[in-house]
Amino acid sequence: MKRPHRRRFLHLAASAAALPAVSRIARAQAYPSRPVTIIVGFPVGGGIDIDARLMAQWLSDRIGQPFNVENRTGSGSAVATEAVVRASADGYTLLFATAANALGPALYPNLKYDFIRDTAPVAGVAFVPIVMVVGPSSPLKTVADFVAYAKANPTQATIGTTFAGSPVFMASALFKAMTGLQAPLAQHSSDATGIADLLAGKVQTHFAGAGAVTEDIRGGKLRALGVTTLTRFELLPDVPPIADAVPGYEASSWVGFVAPRGAPAEIVETLNREINAGLIEAKVKARMREIGHVPMPMGAVEFGKFIAAETEKWAKVIRAANIKAE
């Protein structure tokens, strides 16, 4: 006579145990039920902003709710990042994170947040190769040529770069450190001004984001000595990695999504799945190629490990070179 009661108890217990899982599934299926804000720490119109808006449109079309981009510039993305870490951890405020977030802890010791502690990795989006270029009439044909020239002419072999603290600047600083060169680093406000100085003979080489120089390289207006990726860059397949001449060298920039710490795991999983689906979609890939970016699909955990490794790597470079943010 007691068996029916036992069966009923076991059934109720099983049902109760299933409730959290059902609740999680329901919450993920309901997300998002209203617009989502993507905060970008860089100006409208640049490559980072283009990637953010490209993914926002993809997510809006795919999920059926608006994903709106909001640009909040300042302090190497610190203004945007602080806004996100202070937001509710409900998946409705996301940061379009960049390599600047990995540089921030070492460059800005008084940040009001700990990026790794206070955010939840969601998904990688793209990596952004940096290219070492010379003018079309330069006698330097390879990275090894430049290193040899710079060692023979330590004060004349100037390396053009962008402002201190930028990923491009870090790429040039790492190159200088790993080659042991004394070559001065000439800072510029943008890739465009740096390339102008290169063509005017004021610097002997220049490091620039791939999007700023790929078309000029293809058109013969610039010559590429190397790319900062460990393997060849698909948009410039004839250009060797700098690592071929400087073993272990790698310094690409990158972008991706993070949420405030504590964002529900099922919402992170939903976003990661939909973002990664976009990164293999032909139109999305084609638009990224136009600006010299390469899709970087990753799982959320993998992206978190990537951010941690980048943060540690660049902190060592910043300390060793005594780099200060402008």
Short description:
The chain is of the alpha/beta class. The chain has 12 helices and 11 strands.
Overview of this structure, please?
The protein is an alpha/beta fold. The protein folds into 2 domains: 34-128 and 253-321, D-Maltodextrin-Binding Protein, domain 2; 130-244, Periplasmic binding protein-like II (D-Maltodextrin-Binding Protein, domain 2, 3-Layer(aba) Sandwich), CATH 3.40.190.10. It has 12 helices and 11 strands. It has helices at 3-30, 47-63, 78-85, 99-107, 115-118, 143-152, 167-179, 191-199, 210-218, 265-279, 282-290, 300-321; strands spanning 36-40, 67-71, 93-98, 119-128, 130-134, 159-162, 185-188, 205-209, 223-227, 253-260, 294-295. β1 (36-40), α2 and β2 (67-71) form a beta-alpha-beta unit. The longest helix has 28 residues, at 3-30. Residues 21-25 have low confidence and may be disordered.
